[in-house]
Amino acid sequence: MAYVGMNQMYRAMPHQCGCGGPSPYGPIGYPQPTSPPASMQYGLGMLSAMLNGMMQLQQAYGSYLGQQPSPQQPPSYPTQPAPQTQAQPHGKVIDQMGDGDDNRQVASGTHGNDQITQMGRGGDDTQIAAGKKGNDLIHQKGGKGDDSQKASGGNGRDVIIQKGARGDDNQNASGGKGRDFITQFGGRGDDVQKARGGKGRDNITQKGGAGDDSIHVAAGQGKDKVVINGGRGDDRIVYKVSSGKDKATVRGGKGNDTLLLEVGKKQNVTVLNKNGKVIFKRGNGGTVVKVDGVESLKVNGKKVR
């Protein structure tokens, strides 16, 4: 909004206030050095005060005298509602409990953040759980018996926990896309554990427990962290090296343990002992595996030590 300047208003006023003659300010745009009389200065001061008051009212309450409202007026509200974003579903909470017999438990999540719990007791239980999109939590516990556990997280940041007890358990877990946390406990017995990462920076922990265990891990394409502990018994550990730059720690535990590394042609790997001494190296960078308590080491079927 444009406001009229005081000089322009004075020039536009008729000069019948006792000063006589033409305006001492001359034509608009060419002010003369002569100042207006004191009586006129007083009148202009009053007029200026009135205009300032009207301007403040106009700024507070909107337009007046046909002028446009000031930008400082109270905000107006749209007649149409603003577009709303659809929230992600909350997911499911699924609890499945065994009764001591041979149970088959199957659970499928949603595209939200699911929580799936499967508990076996006595008997040879089968537990299958699948998440989808979302950050899922899957917890499987077998109990006594020869249990079979399978879990997949799907897309998202998933947490998968598989626990066996007494018995020869079979555990299989895969993370999928996203940063996943996979933990497997075999317990007593000759257990088979398989864990696979995916796209993302995964954390994989496998503990065989007492017994002659077979432990398999395939890291994903990110910078994964892998910790393997065979426990008591003669364990067989298979590590499939990925294209990522993983950091792995492999402890055989008590017994006669074997570590088998499967390395592709374009993949680099360095194997260190517990003191940091290089046992095997191919290329620069890539995956670093630190071993302790492993009696036999083979790379692509060839014995290194």
Instruction: Please write the string of helix (H) and strand (E) elements.
Output: HHEEEEEEEEEEEEEEEEEEEEE
Number of domains: 2
Structural class by sheet pairing and helices: mainly beta
Overall mean confidence score, pLDDT: 79
What distance separates the N and C termini?
Answer: 88 Å
Figure out the total of helices: 2
Please report which band the strand proportion falls in: under 5%, 5-15%, 15-25%, 25-35%, 35-45% or over 45%: 25-35%
Strand order of the largest sheet: 1-3-5-7-9-11-13-15-19-17-18
As residue ranges, the low-confidence spans are 1-21, 23-33, 60-72, 74-88
What is the radius of gyration computed over CA atoms, rounded to a whole number of angstroms?
A: 40 Å
Shape: flat
Biggest beta sheet summary: 11 strands, mixed
Helix % is 10-25%
The count of β-strands is: 21
